Amino acid sequence: MNNSPFYQDIRSQYEQFLSEAAAQLNPSDTLRIDLHCHDHNSDVPDEIWGRLLRLPETWLSTEELSETLNRAGTDVVTITNHNNARSCWSLADKQKPVLSGCEFTCHFPGEPLSIHVLIYGFTPKQELELHDLRHDIYAFCAYARQHDLPTVLPHPLFFYSHGENVDPTILERFALLFERFEVLNGQRGYWQNLLTLRWVESLTPDKIDAWAAKHGINPHDFCRDPYRKNLSGGSDDHNGLFAGRCGTLLEVPNLEARLAAGESREALALDAIREGRMAPYGFVGEEEKMTTAFLDYFAQVVINMKDPGLLRMLLHKGSLKDRMICLALSNLLQELKRHKYTLTFLDTFHQALKGKKPKMLLNLGVSKEFKPILKIIKRIAKTQRTEPERFPEELRQSIPELHRFISHTFFSRVHHELARIDKDAIADMPIDEMVRMMEVPTHFRALFSSEKSNGRDMTQVDLGQMLDKLTFPALSASVVAGAAFASTQVLYSNRAFLDRLAADIGATEHPKRVLWLTDTFVDRNGVSSALRDTLTQLQKADLPIDLLVCHPSLKPQPHLQVIRPLTQFQFNQLGEQTIHVPDLLEVQKLFERGGYDRIICSTELCMGPVALYLKHAYSVPAWFYMHTDWLEFISRKTRLDQPIQDRIRRLIRAFYQQFDGMFVLNEEHRDWLTGPDMELPEERIKLTAHWAGIGSEIASLQPRPVNESPILLYVGRLSEEKGVLDLPTIWARVKLEHPAAQLWIAGSGPAEQKLREAAPEATYFGWLEQSQVPQLYQQADLLLLPSRFDTFGCVILEAMSAGLPTLAYNCKGPRSIIQHRLSGLLADDCDEMAELAVEYLASPDKQGRLRVGALSRCLDYSPQKILGQLLHDMGLETQQKAKRPIRRQPPVRLAENQT
Predict the structure, then answer these.
(1) What's 27's DSSP letter?
(2) Which of 475, 225, 464 is CA-nearest to residue 332?
(3) For the segment 144-190, what is each residue's pLDDT rounded down to a tens digit?
(4) What are phi and psi of 435, to 5 degrees?
(5) Can you state the percent helix, strand and coil of the chain, rounding each to 5?
(6) How does pLDDT run across 726-756, given as a tens digit for each residue?
(7) Which domains does the chain have, with CATH numbers?
(8) Which pTM does this prediction carry?
């Protein structure tokens, strides 16, 4: 996977900074310390969910953390648990050297804002006083300064705003209150660490003085030297996985001599921190590292969690939403604890992260299909045990591989179970019967009942047996994916704040780039054709949009990202389309390293949920591009009754409401989405359009010979919802007045056989490449479009570009493009379509005027203008800005004398 120039640049900048910072210190006079790590005494989390579920932040013992820090090569041990130093005092009681440390949660009085503050070198008595003062950050920092207790602001760009919008000027107060900042946090990625660094570097004396006057704060009350900002690092490790592998180098002049003279490393380290003789060291936490930490935490939660108690959760402070979510999580975690295979997998993975081999019995008992998963876990354990310096690199490879193997196992079992079902019966089943078959009973026990229905329904499948086979891979894959989501969501929860800061300081500003997701790209349908045309225009203009397609063999191109599928499913009922299932973690990595900051999605099936996953994980805006009216499709394709259709409409509405905006191709859809059926805000609905496809060249409008047989043309998918079975009736009516009239049909689809039987004398070309179709447009007299299903009608514009008018039904898609009797013809029903065709073919003058009008109308749909407007609607601008919006005329029904 190629990294974006942005990702490569921020990585290069940050690694250069670490190298230069370390080079400024004398290696023989330095101590290594991890200034930010936790063990089991971080037992009261700040997050409300942790408190509701009675979950500590880690179960790691103090002894294990100390051993991990020593193995990582640290010279001084400190443990910074939340709001207590019990672990430090425990080590001191055992006569083990330790620098007292703590991470206090401090509050801004009268404001919904909390921050973490690291502090070192205090006594047990001072800890109690600091604990009392932490509810007023100003008193806390003043006390630390008075007693010469050095403080560090960890992850300065990540703090707790308790659901409120944060005033960006809070950073100005941070600059006045602190002189040491953590610019290397082992759980944050390159972008956030580099942005933190660039912000600290931007703190000039002039700014400090100006902000002191602005806020009425004297920085000398809190800092030895408020104009000198010092930089630290810490692992922020909670599980003992990476503790000590990133931290702070402390320079101690004449280190060896002072140690020989009896000075302790802890006292020397504290003095170096006070003096600011420090530089961060280590490696940045990329996505797999944070995912591993969350995955290990989830594993420990499942292994160690006790029932929090229903009554306690319901009576606990917090919003009803939080309590209900925690209740659901509690039930889910308790179910995980009951599933022995999933529990064994999580425990084995947790032990592997500590370098422990899987147990012998596990090796002997694991089934063949899970051998690759066990092999990956063994590899993780061996690397941690024998090559700890390679551990992060191993995780970058192993975590995605682990998720992929588990997912493959899950889908392999799904396909195996589906293969036992009568495929022919399923394939031939009408879609309305399929929907009813999938109806879940009110009582879940009915799913597993031995009493079988005489009809064809879900009880034909032994669902109990199927679920038993799918539970382990499904739960395991979900846990891995959930860890990946949680880690990313934590990192990017304040993305708007970070983006604003990057713009303000003019450094590490994220590129404004769109990832456009779609399930269909090479299929034989209008959406695929439109997206392929879009790709060509993106490449031509080098616009800040990349398409993402999941496909087994398609090759990547400029502006086209391709990932390989985990599996695929065939949906004949939805238009003979193959749906490829993407690897969620691979999509997540591509989004992160591609430098994207917003999303468009064109399809609802697999890529729709993936788009919403990325939106919530990365806190980025997402738009949906509505190509297909699925309710119209269901209405025309099925015999579902109205209550079931209403249920589907509510599901679609809930899905669409998750997006920040929607692009629609006609006014009717815009009005429907903002009306009582869907209730979307008007400001979120944007009108867009397609353009004539690539390969359709502007016609020269050479007049056709009068004596040639008139040709009626249809181009598109041959399916009943496209109205193709109206073609024989229309053609028969036309032949009564124009006996030599021909019907040419280009396309393929499920209704082809019925169409051939109804119109055997028509000329069938089959499915043609897009570059071949303009030849038909040039030869035809009139394009027929008997579809009431199309949301737009790209074929209309393609025909117009060849100077060929279209006769279509007067419905939402064609009506947006065709100006009746000016650039084409609109009919209300089959009879009127036949009458208009007869009339048109009988008048060469009308044909000439409509050809000119069609060509003129096509020019209104410029790809540059349309894509420019789309980018503008998403908050982006191109160098060639859209000069005017797309022209939209209301449907015009002119009288005969106006032609």
Answers:
(1) G
(2) 475
(3) 999 999 999 999 998 877 666 778 889 999 999 999 999 999 988 89
(4) -60, -45
(5) 50, 15, 35
(6) 999 999 999 999 999 999 999 998 899 999 9
(7) 18-285 (3.20.20.140), 289-440+458-483 (no CATH), 507-687 (3.40.50.2000), 711-898 (3.40.50.2000)
(8) 0.86
